[in-house]
Each structure stands twice: as C-alpha cells, then as structure tokens.
Amino acid sequence: MKQACLLLLPFVGLLWVPLYNRTDPILFGFPFFYWYQLAWVPVTSVLIWCAWKAGKHS
C-alpha cells in the first residue's frame, strides 16, 4: 500500500496546475512552469524505483 502512496505524489504534483502556473522563479532561462514539470521526470523515476523495491520485498 505504501507503494501506491509513492506513485500518487507525481500524479498529484503535476495534476494540481495552480501550484506551478507561474513564470517566476526562472532557472537557466526557463520559467518555473517548465522546469517544475521537467524536475518531476527524475523524481518520478526514483519514486517508481522505490515503489518497485518496496513491492519486491512484500
């Protein structure tokens, strides 16, 4: 069940658009709207890996 909670984090983080629907702060010339979404790519990969490892032991 903990695995499902890990997999819900990126879903909620990206589905809640008002959280990141702005331009500031800018990072390397990219508005917040874009780099926030791009930052979720490696974070989601790590969370999927953690959920997989946790599910493998149960």
From TrEMBL:
Domain of life: Bacteria
UniProt entry keywords in alphabetical sequence: Membrane, Transmembrane, Transmembrane helix
Lineage: Bacteria, Pseudomonadati, Pseudomonadota, Alphaproteobacteria, Acetobacterales
One Pfam family from the record: DUF3311
Source species: Gluconacetobacter entanii
Residues that span the membrane, as ranges: 33-52
Membrane as UniProt keyword: yes
Protein name (database record): DUF3311 domain-containing protein
